[in-house]
Amino acid sequence: MPVQETDVLVVGGGLGGVAAALAAARLGRRVVLTEESPWLGGQLTSQAVPPDEHPWIEQHGATRSYRRLRELIRDYYRRAYDLSADARTAPLLNPGGGAVSAVCHEPRVGVAAVAELLAPYRADAQLTVLEQHEPVSAWTQGDRVHAVTLRSRVSGGEVTVSAPYILDATELGDLLELAGVEHVTGAESRDETGELHAPDGPADPLDQQSFTWCFAMDHHPGRDFTIDRPADYALWRDYRPSCWPGPLLSWQDVHPRTLAPRERPLFAHVDSPRGHPADDWWNYRRIFSAAHHAPSRYASDITLVNWPQADYMAGPLTGVDEETRQRHLEASRRQSLSFLYWMQTEAPRPDGGTGYPGLRPRGDVLGTTDGLALRPYIRESRRIRAEFTVLEQHVGVEARAKAGLPAGSEIFADAVGVGSYRIDLHPSTGSADGPGPYIDIADYPFQIPLGALIPQRVENLLPANKNIGTTHITNGCYRLHPVEWNIGEAAGALAAHCLNTGGTPRAVLGSPARLEAFQRELTGVLGFQLGWSDRIRRAEQ
Question: Is the pTM of this model over 0.70?
Fold first, then answer.
């Protein structure tokens, strides 16, 4: 079997993995980056999720490279598209005009932006990228992971890569299991963590956030793009989760914060498909806006369906055998296709009719032929048992108040970045009683502590995605796009820093002088932000 040697091996090419590889390369190290899908970028690209970001993202709260990524996406539209004068001159162009982000865009444009960031390091093979390769085994000895074997999803051939530092940037924390790294899955109990919103009773490793197989579509009234009826359509059409007010396939869902039923139409206005700013599903995650172009150039917007009706709550992806995992993945695909078919054929319209047959699946903007994304959108991963675990009482507004702690998030002296997002847990796989409800609660803008990136035992494997030392609760705010990027970039920088200085991650954490030197490198060389102003730190999200 061929064996490659490198300085830093990053397994998983999502946002965290890309950022990790970029940081390690910028600090002079050789890197191998692997990814199981054909596209780098993870939740931004292959999972097809427009970025979820905080309200200060244009000025604060991200690393320099993440800002560069966002600007490259905007620049792509300015260079490649014949934009209207208003769109072309907008300094903060939102290509899709979606309500969820200031930079909603086509996933394939994200792929191009990621490629541009990595291009200088691929030119001389300082960075090697192995796409469509998945990890199948790891060679460990004592407290070190020496190598990982990866299998090509195209040829079936295998390659082993060895490195002094190995980063797990997979979406589900796959290396943690393969390498025998101590980790947690699912929901911890309140007795274990003391968290206000953790469940009573024992921990439940199988209670994990729902995942979603997203898809894209545009709309052409008067035409018929109805897909074949999915084989188990009736099952999903009639599915009524215990945490839902009625059938899941409906325009009615629940408000995540209050859990009260609410109604939201597909189109709130006749002009919605052409960019009308309405409170409807169409504009929520719109990734292409026809209004940014000449009036006759494009017949429709494109919207991205990452909506509650496609959240798969029927079973988890970790802590189960491979056959069960694959069954849940396939069922999630069929659920999403059933939702599309329901919208095309049975969805109620404001005019009293049913169905929107003019909804056309747009897999071409996602790299597929069936309209679905390349990979499912994963919200919750295996998580390392870390030197430090971020708890709800470190960041949650209500939890800190009830504990008698001051307003604002906990201040961490070992901060390696920042983030901000509500503690947002989608309905979970729950228990025998059915799916668990939303947990959507206020928190404060927070820091990322280095201790959450250091495993309790293993010395040279670092988490670089959603697999850091958080809980089921706090994962809900540490899982979003800019935070994952920051985590990955910090992990890649830490590996390179240790190779360059002869230290270890644990030594950096344990030595004030080493920690200060590393933080200076983060802020000076890589442009990290390590803290919030007092005003923002106390802002309730």
Answer: yes
Nearest residue to 464 via CA among 85, 16, 151, 10: 16
- Comparing C-alpha atoms, which of 480, 442, 466, 438 is closest to residue 209? 438
Average predicted confidence (pLDDT) for the chain: 96
Q: Rounded to whole angstroms, how far apart are CA atoms 105 and 75?
A: 12
Lookup: tokens for 466: 């959603």
DSSP 273: G
From residue 264, give the alpha-carbon distance in Å to each of 51, 251, 255, 306. 22, 6, 10, 14
Q: Degrees (nearest 5) of the Cα angle 221, 362, 466?
A: 130
Condensed to tens digits (0 to 9), the pLDDT of residues 162-204 reads: 999 999 999 999 999 999 999 999 999 999 999 999 999 999 9
491 in Cβ contact with 24 (< 8 Å): no
Sign of the four-CA dihedral 314, 318, 320, 323: positive
DSSP summary character for residue 410: P
Structure tokens at 73: 């996406």
Distances (CA, A) of 260 to 96, 224, 283, 438: 29, 35, 22, 11
Q: Is 438 helix (H, G, I), strand (E, B) or coil?
A: coil
At 56-74, the pLDDT tens digits run: 999 999 999 999 999 999 9
| 377's tokens | 């959108």
pLDDT of residue 279: 82
